[in-house]
């Protein structure tokens, strides 16, 4: 009875907006038809105002009535390949009082979800999909995973998903219509006003309804798996999302530009999580509150308190250990889900172990200008391209010439630009040579992407030596000595210690954004304070705002 | 008003910009216009000219002589800084001779900020290469360090603090860091003109957000001194992309009246920043449909098309200046 009344009130509420739209549309058309019978000339005049409005409403209603098929993504998980996972899903679907999904897909997102394909305002469901994020399997225990799963499945038994589809469409139709309304047209502006107020109530009511449904789903999870595992699962979601984001943005793509991907991404993700222990513990203790009023979920802290208060012991048995234990041969499947989420080019990358990835990615990030600068040095001096040739060119006072440009620039600007680029090129060349000679070693350094260290035999501040070589009065002696001694065979290979000046001391791998995140060796590389915000549009210079001539900086969305 | 938009360029057949002969109003022809920002003040112009000819002495003398006249010092350092960013030879000669002093330090810091901009270029972020962003960030850090050093050499001088205010946005200071610098500047010169101008830029929202705080800042400053009334026009200029009606706002019209009265006084009309006030007033009057009042200002500006707001339009600065004065003449 309770379920029925909830369903009825839901359907009534979400149909308010389309019904109002249909009513207004019908009234407008009827009025215009009536006007035509009275005075065709006046009717045509009226139609000029009415037709655009009817079109806008019709378009909005079309959005509402069109069928919605979920674009299926991720890697399909077949029952005969993963019987244990499917058995668990079936068991907990039964516990939640609903049928199991028609298919399961493994995705690379840090969440799980249930979606239905629907027809006719969401009243008819044709297919249910269960999406499971690989990071959840990697980060949750089997019991925690079962709690998340039960929560998602419980939306079925409440008939939430089906009517959530209606609510979703109703909102979408509403938003579409509101965006299409021409605010300069008086009639349409009046319509905008009416719809806004009529729909506001329905939207608010649907929001509180769907919040209640979330709580019902939480209860279902707690009853099946127990309050403790459910709370633990919910507390784990933010740490997984945060660390996964960092992993994707920094570590996974560390060797991307050089053509490499890790052979064992989830092993790396596990080490990243372990290294972020303290930060993740904070997130776990205080789940972040998403203060979005349109969010249909109640605040996480409230949900956790409510689940705790249930003190449910749990009625279902779940295998002990990690959720990965539910999968047969999990790593290839997780890997496939990850590759599926990347651009197709990902499949052409070479897969290497983490130490190799750190090295090739690190060197690639440091040598962006190296080839160009060495080639120019070779051309200027008539010698083969090598670090020594570059140092010769610098000693010959050819700093500016090493970075040819066709831009007309003032002398100091040109020289400083050359200094920055030659410095990077030289640094990359030296690091490459030292790496080849075994004098620089690269290694994993979670949570940073990796670090490089100079063998302790060379107690030299590498950044300072490079600075000296590109100074106005170049001093290349230090670098030459370093390169020469590293090139000589030595008897203590393998004994590598810490040269503190040359460590990359980035505290963690929280995402930097951007497409080529490679912080390795940045501390070494720059040898200076960390960079300011990347890619700023810095109005406030002597030029004021950069380019107001129609090229006024468009800032990234969401700022 | 968007002065760069010429209807005729967008849709052929639409009227072109007013075809007026500005020389009839006593204004120089377009090809005589100059964006050299050192020109408006003759003593600064001659010091900059000497510096560009690699003679540091007039610059050093000017800064030494005018120490305490913070308006003059800020204007001189701004213009000398640009010269230093183009060619630092004269700074090196100066350093070789004196071993470095407070005047050199402040020019050097400001010059590094100019250098950061010149390395970056003034195109929007997405049209700027990664190495240009990198160069900007590195050079801003060097400018910041140099400015902090300059504050130690001249503890009572607001100018290096002004450089820090100038680089605040590019450096990405948070409100606390900015507040600290701003208080230091205010303690040394509460009405510091350039400081206020760049503080307003720091405070300006990134997009169509709320401009209330910006106008509040500008109005507070304008209430403190008519020499800062231009800030209200500057705030309107920041806001006009999102709300053209701002030019009908009474706050803006009041500020335009105040600037015009201020320019009629000896302190306002004869000061180092007279031309700067004239530019903002002229731009604001044309935008606010009071172009006729801007004609005498453009006549007085003569060939000087330097400074803001024109310089914000980069290579189009002269075009914008010219189209603005033509609109004034036809108003």
TrEMBL record, chain A:
Please indicate if the UniProt record lists Transport as a keyword: no
Write the record's keywords in alphabetical order, separated by commas: Cell membrane, Hydrolase, Membrane, Metal-binding, Metalloprotease, Protease, Transmembrane, Transmembrane helix, Zinc
Q: InterPro entries this protein is in? A: HtpX_protease (IPR050083), Peptidase_M48 (IPR001915)
Q: Where in the cell is it found?
A: Cell membrane
Outline the extent of the Peptidase M48 domain.
81-309
> Which metal ions or organic cofactors does this protein require, according to UniProt?
Zn(2+)
Bilayer-crossing regions? 12-34, 46-65, 129-149
| Protein's membrane topology | Multi-pass membrane protein
Chain residue ranges for the region called Disordered: 483-559
- The answer to whether the entry has keyword Repressor is no
Protein name according to UniProt: M48 family metallopeptidase
UniProtKB/TrEMBL annotation, chain B:
Quote the protein name from its UniProt record.
DUF4034 domain-containing protein
Give the species this sequence originates from.
Answer: Actinophytocola gossypii
């Amino acid at each position: 009875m309770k379920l029925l009344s909830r369903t009825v009130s839901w359907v009534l509420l979400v149909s308010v907006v389309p019904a109002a739209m249909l009513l207004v549309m019908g009234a407008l058309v009827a009025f215009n038809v009536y006007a035509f019978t009275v005075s065709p000339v006046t009717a045509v005049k009226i139609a000029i105002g009415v037709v655009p409005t009817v079109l806008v409403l019709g378009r909005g209603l079309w959005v509402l009535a069109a069928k919605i098929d979920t674009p299926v993504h991720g890697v399909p998980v077949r029952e005969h390949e993963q019987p244990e996972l499917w058995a668990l899903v079936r068991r907990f679907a039964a516990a939640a009082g609903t049928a199991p999904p028609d298919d399961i897909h493994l995705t690379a997102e840090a969440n799980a979800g249930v979606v239905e394909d629907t027809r006719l305002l969401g009243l008819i469901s044709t297919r249910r999909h269960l999406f499971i994020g690989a990071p959840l399997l990697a980060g949750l225990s089997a019991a925690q995973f079962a709690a998340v799963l039960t929560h998602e499945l419980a939306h079925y038994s409440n008939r939430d998903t089906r009517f959530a589809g209606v609510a979703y469409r109703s909102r979408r139709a509403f938003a579409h219509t509101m965006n299409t309304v021409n605010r300069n047209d008086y009639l349409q502006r009046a319509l905008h006003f009416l719809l806004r107020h009529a729909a506001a109530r329905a939207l608010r009511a649907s929001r509180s309804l769907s919040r209640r449904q979330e709580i019902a789903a939480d209860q279902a999870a707690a009853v099946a798996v127990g309050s403790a595992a459910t709370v633990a699962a919910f507390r784990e979601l933010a740490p997984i999302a945060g660390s996964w984001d960092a992993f994707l943005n920094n570590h996974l793509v560390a060797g991307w530009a050089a053509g490499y991907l890790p052979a064992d991404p989830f092993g790396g993700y596990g080490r990243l999580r372990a290294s972020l222990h303290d930060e993740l513990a904070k997130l776990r203790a205080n789940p972040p509150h998403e203060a979005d009023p349109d969010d249909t979920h109640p605040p996480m802290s409230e949900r956790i308190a409510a689940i705790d208060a249930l003190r449910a012991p749990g009625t279902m048995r779940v295998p002990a250990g990690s959720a990965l234990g539910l999968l047969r041969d999990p790593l290839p499947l997780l890997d496939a889900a990850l590759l599926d989420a990347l651009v197709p080019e990902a499949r052409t990358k070479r897969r290497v172990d983490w130490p190799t990835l750190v090295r090739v990615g690190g060197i690639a990030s440091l040598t962006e200008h190296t080839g160009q600068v060495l080639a120019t040095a070779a051309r200027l001096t008539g010698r083969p391209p090598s670090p020594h040739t570059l140092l010769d060119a610098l000693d010959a006072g050819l700093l500016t010439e090493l970075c040819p440009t066709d831009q007309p620039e003032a002398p100091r600007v040109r020289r400083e630009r050359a200094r920055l680029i030659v410095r990077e090129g030289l640094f990359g060349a030296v690091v490459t040579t030292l790496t080849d000679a075994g004098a620089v070693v690269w290694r994993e350094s979670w949570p940073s992407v990796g670090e490089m260290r100079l063998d302790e035999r060379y107690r030299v501040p590498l950044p300072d030596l490079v600075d000296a070589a590109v100074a106005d009065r170049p001093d290349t002696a230090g670098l030459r000595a370093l390169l020469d001694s590293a090139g000589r065979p030595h008897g203590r290979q393998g004994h590598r210690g810490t040269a503190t000046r040359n460590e990359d001391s980035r505290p963690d791998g929280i995402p930097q954004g951007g497409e080529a995140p490679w912080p390795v060796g940045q501390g070494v590389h720059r040898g200076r304070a960390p960079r300011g915000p990347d890619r700023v549009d810095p109005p406030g210079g002597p030029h004021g705002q950069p380019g107001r001539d129609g090229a006024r900086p468009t800032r990234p969305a969401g700022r | 008003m968007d002065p760069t938009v010429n209807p005729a360029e967008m849709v052929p057949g639409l009227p072109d910009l007013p075809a007026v002969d500005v020389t009839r109003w006593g204004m120089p022809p377009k090809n005589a216009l100059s964006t050299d920002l050192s020109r408006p003040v003759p003593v600064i112009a001659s010091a900059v000219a000497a510096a560009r000819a690699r003679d540091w002495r007039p610059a050093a003398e000017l800064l030494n002589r005018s120490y305490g006249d913070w308006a003059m010092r800020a204007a001189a350092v701004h213009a000398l800084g640009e010269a230093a960013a183009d060619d630092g030879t004269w700074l090196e000669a100066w350093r070789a001779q004196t071993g470095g002093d407070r005047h050199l330090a402040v020019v050097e810091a400001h010059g590094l900020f100019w250098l950061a901009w010149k390395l970056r270029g003034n195109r929007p972020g997405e049209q700027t290469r990664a190495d240009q962003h990198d160069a900007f960030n590195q050079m801003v850090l060097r400018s910041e360090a140099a400015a902090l050093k300059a504050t130690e050499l001249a503890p009572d001088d607001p100018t290096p603090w002004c450089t820090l205010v100038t680089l605040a946005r590019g450096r990405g200071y948070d409100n606390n860091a900015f507040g600290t610098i701003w208080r230091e500047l205010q303690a040394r010169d509460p009405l510091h003109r350039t400081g206020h101008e760049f503080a307003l830029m720091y405070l300006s929202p990134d997009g169509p957000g709320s401009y209330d705080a910006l106008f509040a800042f500008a109005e507070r400053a304008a209430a403190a001194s008519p020499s800062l009334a231009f800030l209200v026009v500057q705030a309107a200029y920041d806001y006009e992309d999102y709300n053209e009606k701002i030019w009908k706002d009474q706050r803006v019209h009041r500020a335009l009246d105040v600037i015009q009265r201020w320019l009629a006084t000896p302190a306002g009309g004869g000061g180092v920043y007279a031309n700067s006030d004239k530019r903002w007033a002229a731009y604001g009057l044309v935008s606010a449909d009071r172009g006729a009042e801007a004609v005498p200002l453009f006549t007085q500006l003569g060939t000087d098309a330097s400074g803001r707001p024109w310089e914000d339009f980069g290579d189009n600065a002269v075009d914008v200046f010219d189209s603005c004065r033509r609109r004034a003449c036809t108003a």
